[in-house]
């Protein structure tokens, strides 16, 4: 449950449960336009997100979050049942990636200066903000929700890295267009919750990732959530000539409405088999 949200059941119409795009096969909305013109239309909260191991955070990152229930109700009232309000939450996988980036334990995490990084299904942009704070040459927030991208930009500016972060409205079911093979690192946080998302994500990531040696997809999610989806995704990436180069586990302080809870997150780093080993 999102921080600041009331306990409420999601609508019965198809909705995603992760801060990601929704496939074109879901129930069409009565309107294609988002029901908001600006994030100022939605109640906001500024929070300090704990970064680091559970119970031992080493730092915090200030973030602006939006009221999840307010966003959900607006989608329902607009008949946009296929839209996903849960991007308004801080997801534990983004906390895990932020922690490993900032402490330098994520491979390539200490050599981001010349690299272009994508925060895929960015939500509020925590992972991308952390990459920018670590010195990434450019961070591109990818999400299909315009309000999400506005929040990403606001959070980048809040953290003093707005000059190196740009938003890009992106639906992973559509052609990648000018983004083809343009990212050295792609951060994928909690994007495999829904079965229907697995194949589109596995198709699009190889098209977004640079062909340069060492180009990396960092996949992060809790190991006990959507296990079958993750295994299917890894199998599809293997068919696309990707392999796991490294794996890490971290317990984070997942932010809940009633406080924090300990959540384990597994991070897998995927590279093309013909790429050089960036750890050497």
SS content category: alpha/beta
Which regions contain 5 or more consecutive residues with pLDDT less than 50?
4-31, 275-280
Q: How many whole angstroms does the radius of gyration measure? A: 17 Å
What does the average pLDDT come to? 83
**Secondary-structure element order, as H and E?**
EEHHEHEHEEHEHEE
What general outline do the C-alpha atoms trace? globular
Number of DSSP helical runs: 6
What is the terminal-to-terminal distance? 41 Å
In which order are the strands of the major sheet placed? 5-4-3-6-7-9-8
Helicity, as a percent range: 10-25%
Describe the largest sheet: 7 strands, mixed
Give a written overview of the molecule.
This protein is an alpha/beta fold and 280 residues long. Helix content is 25%, strand content 28%. It is built from six helices and nine strands; from the N terminus they run E-E-H-H-E-H-E-H-E-E-H-E-H-E-E. The strands form two sheets. The protein has a seven-stranded mixed beta sheet with strand order 5-4-3-6-7-9-8. A two-stranded antiparallel ribbon has the order 1-2. A hairpin with a 2-residue loop joins strand 8 (242-256) and strand 9. Helix 2 packs parallel to helix 3 (126-133). Residues 4-31 and 275-280 have low confidence and may be disordered.
């Amino acid at each position: 449950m999102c921080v600041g949200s009331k306990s409420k059941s999601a609508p019965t119409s198809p909705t995603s449960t992760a801060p990601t795009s929704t496939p074109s096969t879901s129930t069409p909305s009565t309107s294609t336009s988002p029901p908001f013109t600006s994030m100022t239309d939605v109640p906001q909260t500024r929070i300090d997100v704990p970064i680091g191991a559970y119970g031992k955070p080493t730092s915090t990152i200030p973030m602006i979050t939006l009221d999840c229930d307010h966003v959900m109700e607006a989608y329902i009232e607009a008949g946009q049942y296929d839209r996903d309000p849960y991007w308004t939450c801080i997801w534990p996988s983004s906390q895990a990636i932020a922690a490993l980036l900032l402490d330098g334990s994520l491979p390539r995490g200490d050599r981001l200066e010349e690299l272009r990084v994508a925060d895929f299904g960015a939500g509020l942009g925590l992972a991308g903000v952390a990459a920018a704070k670590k010195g990434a040459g450019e961070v591109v927030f990818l999400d299909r929700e315009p309000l999400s991208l506005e929040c990403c930009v606001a959070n980048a500016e809040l953290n003093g890295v707005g000059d190196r972060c740009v938003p890009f409205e992106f639906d992973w079911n559509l052609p990648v267009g000018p983004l083809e093979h343009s990212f050295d690192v792609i951060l994928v946080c909690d994007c495999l919750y829904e079965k229907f998302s697995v194949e589109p994500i596995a198709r699009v990531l190889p098209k977004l990732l640079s062909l340069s040696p060492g180009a990396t997809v960092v996949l992060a999610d809790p190991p006990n959530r959507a296990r079958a989806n993750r295994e299917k995704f890894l199998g599809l990436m293997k068919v696309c000539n990707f392999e796991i180069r490294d794996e890490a586990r971290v317990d984070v302080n997942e932010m809940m409405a009633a406080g924090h809870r300990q959540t384990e997150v597994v991070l897998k780093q995927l590279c093309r088999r013909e790429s050089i080993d960036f750890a050497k």
